[in-house]
Design goal:
By secondary structure, the chain is mostly helical. Helices cover 63% and strands 3% of the residues. It folds into two domains: 86 residues, Arc Repressor Mutant, subunit A; 62 residues. The chain contains seven helices and two strands; from the N terminus they run H-H-H-E-E-H-H-H-H. A two-stranded antiparallel ribbon has the order 1-2.
Length: 179
């Protein structure tokens, strides 16, 4: 469990769901369980995070009701976009679900920013691919002795290509966010 509640991997998808529409805590929990079951959201965690997000000024009550819905504030929207950028830039797609969640909200960024982030990431992944491929070439070992490296080289090549193609599709207007 993160020591800072705002580092919890549920924060980005919670903010993303609130971009769509105000929701009360149970509705957030239900939607998180539907869309992100691999995050294993717990009732107490979601309720605690809504309280933390409220205290930090990222969400606020939205009208009356029981249960009372919350909505994203301007500060919350700015934080949401910054999290997307940071997680696309820094999260390890091989080890951390944060990268995948950030991809889910790529359309919330200006297209030019999304293209830049994807191309930068494609270049870094491509460099990892080249370094690992060189390691394989220099190893002079049977494939089975380094089968996991062969797998990773293949995956990195695929990922770099996918990121670059997706950036191109956004730049060309072939891939646009839903309205």
């Amino acid at each position: 469990m993160p020591t800072n509640a705002l580092d919890n991997p549920l924060v980005l998808p919670m903010l993303g769901l609130l971009v769509e529409t105000p929701r009360h805590q149970y509705a957030l929990l239900r939607e998180l369980r539907t869309r992100y079951p691999f995050l294993n959201p717990k009732t107490s965690t979601v309720y605690t995070l809504v309280g933390t997000l409220t205290r930090k000024g990222l969400v606020e009550p939205d009208g009356d009701g029981d249960p009372q819905p919350v909505r994203l504030t301007e500060a919350g929207l700015a934080d949401f976009r910054e999290r997307i950028e940071r997680q696309l830039r820094d999260a390890d797609p091989n080890l951390d679900s944060r990268f995948l969640i950030a991809l889910a909200y790529l359309g919330a960024l200006p297209p030019s920013r999304a293209v830049t982030l994807l191309r930068d990431r494609a270049e870094r992944v491509g460099e990892q691919h080249r370094e690992l491929a060189k390691t394989l070439d220099n190893a002079d070992l049977p494939e089975m002795q380094m089968i996991e490296v062969h797998f990773l080289v293949s995956r990195l090549r695929h990922d770099a290509g996918w990121l670059a193609r997706t950036a191109d599709r956004i730049e060309n207007g072939d891939l646009v966010p839903p309205r």
